[in-house]
Design a protein that fits this description.
The chain has 178 residues and is mainly α. It is built from seven helices and no strands. The chain folds into two domains: 9-75, no CATH class; 85-158, no CATH class. It has helices at 13-25, 31-50, 56-63, 66-75, 85-104, 109-129, 135-158. The longest helix has 24 residues, at 135-158. The N and C termini lie far apart (131 Å). 23% of the residues are buried.
């Protein structure tokens, strides 16, 4: 009777090393997700071995590199996971607050400037802290910066001069003498 390949994947050195590499590649995920993925891959290997595939290297080649599996796990949140929707909502909130600051500028300039400054800071933080660069962050940063620049320019032109008059007052032209 020929020696059969054991059906327990962890009993084969190649399969064992593959599963350990997968476990290490998934260290950034939570423990339950990591163990679920490793268990699922081990079951796949076991089913292939039980079905008569004796070349463990071929089974592992079909699975692909552990990095690819880890990348798929990282980009595919579990069903019903609401964490995926949160960043999109946040980017729209940044864009909305930037637009609101621009609209409020002629009505309530101090509030608009404060909101514009807060939005610009939040947009800069989001731009630095996030690997993805959705267009909403760039648009929010551009609009809030525009609000700040327009507010400062408007404040400079509308501010009273130190002599008591307005900066828009022009000196009187000298009277023509004959």
């Amino acid at each position: 009777m020929p020696d059969r390949v054991p059906t327990d994947p962890s009993a084969h050195p190649l399969a064992h090393a593959y599963l350990e590499d997968l476990r290490r590649s998934l260290m950034h995920t939570d423990a339950s997700t990591r163990e679920e993925v490793v268990r699922s891959v081990a079951e796949h290997i076991q089913q292939a071995m039980s079905a008569g595939m004796e070349d463990v290297g071929e089974i592992l080649d079909e699975l692909g590199p552990v990095e690819a599996i880890a990348a798929d796990v990282e980009h595919d949140p579990p069903p019903g996971d609401v964490r995926e929707a949160a960043p999109t909502s946040r980017w729209w909130l940044l864009l909305g607050s930037a637009a609101l600051s621009l609209v409020l500028l002629p009505l309530v300039p101090f509030l608009a400037l404060a909101l514009g400054l807060a939005t610009a800071i939040a947009s800069l933080i989001a731009r630095v802290a996030t690997a993805e660069r959705p267009w909403q962050i760039s648009a929010a940063l551009a609009i809030s910066t525009t609000t700040l620049v327009l507010g400062i320019i408007g404040g400079l032109f509308l501010a009273p001069s130190p002599t008591g008059g307005s900066t828009t007052d022009l000196p009187a032209a000298p009277a023509a003498t004959e």
